[in-house]
């Protein structure tokens, strides 16, 4: 994610994630926290945010979780009428993301809000597709809109001699079945590794709450609904790479070496990964939520309609700029994003936004997979 607090930073362009959390996820999360087993053993209660990124969203999410856990301890003490149990345990929060994450900005925010944070905080850099914590040490794992990011691009997608070679495409925009199968294979392995690591790290009765982009289509190569708003925006991204080649800024080979490590799983794929863990988890809920009713103005509140295209551009830059710059450098990345803005204009994304604002039935966004597991 784009670091810092500038105009195109993730911290300033993560309103859609906040919207989903407040309007769809929070009630399910609070209910799950109420249903998990909590005991006052004298040890700290440990909560980990996997894929925390930076910005206020992660702090707000952790506050929501910690406040509910504290309420549960207070309520249980009142019911028991035991004055010795009214002393709350210590709470430890671990913020996890890749080492390239902007932990500096996150720690600055934590320091600014330290007077309202009643827990010990620490950063844990590393991939959540492997072990991060000691065995049986974490009470609550929370992962928000992260597990659709893969550990790597599938090798076959970058191999010119493979049927899955993704020539002329930055992702699965063209819906090629061989490419979809290659992404699915890697994503299946990733999720199994993720769940296996969490099974080792969680205390018995602990909660694993995660939600991430999903899909309703059975075909792995059809990640977005065709003609959806998100699909149209991604088409602009893909066409911008074509423009970089046609303008002479890069070769076709250099363009074909760029792919985005994303995969949106079906519920069946999620269930199969959980099944691979045997009896490690008890399934509380595995469900898909349709977020297609949200307007662009809902995702970016207080933004005039005339500015929503620009806001969408900043949103995409906040997530993809580091990947683009890593591939072609900062100077060419600037040209790439100029091409993207031009494609958004030429493809009449403004008109599409106005259509969506008037028609609540227009399919706009991907689905969300929500998974709630209890460690057996």
From TrEMBL:
InterPro entries: MeTrfase_7 (IPR005299), MeTrfase_capping (IPR042086), SAM-dependent_MTases_sf (IPR029063). Gene3D superfamilies: Methyltransferase, alpha-helical capping domain (1.10.1200.270), Vaccinia Virus protein VP39 (3.40.50.150). One of its GO terms (molecular function) is methyltransferase activity. It holds the Pfam family Methyltransf_7. SUPFAM superfamilies: S-adenosyl-L-methionine-dependent methyltransferases (SSF53335). Keywords: Magnesium, Metal-binding. PANTHER family: S-ADENOSYL-L-METHIONINE:CARBOXYL METHYLTRANSFERASE FAMILY PROTEIN. This is Uncharacterized protein. It comes from Marchantia polymorpha subsp. ruderalis.
């Amino acid at each position: 994610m784009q670091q810092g607090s500038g105009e195109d930073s993730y911290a300033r362009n993560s309103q859609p994630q906040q919207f989903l959390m407040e309007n769809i996820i929070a009630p399910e999360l609070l209910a799950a926290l109420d249903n998990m087993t909590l005991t006052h053993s004298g040890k700290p209660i440990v909560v980990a945010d996997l894929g925390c990124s930076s910005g206020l969203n992660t702090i707000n999410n952790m506050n929501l979780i910690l406040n509910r856990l504290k309420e549960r301890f207070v309520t249980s003490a009142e019911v028991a009428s035991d004055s010795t149990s009214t002393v709350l345990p210590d709470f430890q929060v671990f913020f996890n993301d890749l080492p390239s994450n902007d932990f500096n900005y996150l720690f600055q925010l934590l320091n600014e809000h330290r007077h309202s944070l009643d827990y010990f905080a620490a950063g844990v850099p590393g991939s959540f597709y492997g072990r991060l914590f000691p065995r049986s040490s974490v009470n609550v794992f929370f992962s928000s809109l992260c597990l659709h990011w893969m550990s790597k691009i599938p090798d076959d997608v970058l191999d010119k001699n493979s049927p899955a070679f993704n020539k002329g495409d930055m992702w699965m925009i063209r819906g090629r079945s061989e490419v979809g199968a290659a992404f699915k294979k890697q994503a299946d392995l990733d999720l199994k590794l993720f769940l296996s690591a969490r099974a080792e790290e969680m205390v018995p009765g602990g909660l694993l709450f995660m939600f991430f982009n999903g899909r309703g289509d059975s075909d792995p190569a059809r990640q977005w609904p065709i003609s959806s708003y998100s699909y149209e925006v991604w088409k602009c991204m893909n066409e911008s790479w074509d423009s970089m080649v046609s303008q002479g800024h890069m070769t076709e080979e250099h363009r074909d070496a760029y792919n985005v490590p994303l995969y949106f799983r079906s519920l069946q794929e999620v269930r199969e990964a959980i099944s691979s863990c045997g009896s490690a988890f008890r399934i509380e809920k595995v469900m898909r939520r349709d977020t297609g009713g949200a307007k662009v103005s809902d995702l970016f509140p207080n933004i005039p309609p005339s500015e929503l295209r620009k806001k969408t551009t900043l949103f995409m830059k906040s997530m993809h700029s580091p990947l683009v710059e890593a591939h072609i450098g900062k100077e060419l990345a600037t040209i790439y994003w100029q091409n993207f803005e031009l494609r958004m204009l030429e493809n009449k994304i403004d008109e599409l936004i106005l259509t969506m604002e008037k028609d609540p039935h227009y399919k706009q966004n991907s689905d969300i997979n929500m998974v709630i597991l209890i460690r057996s």
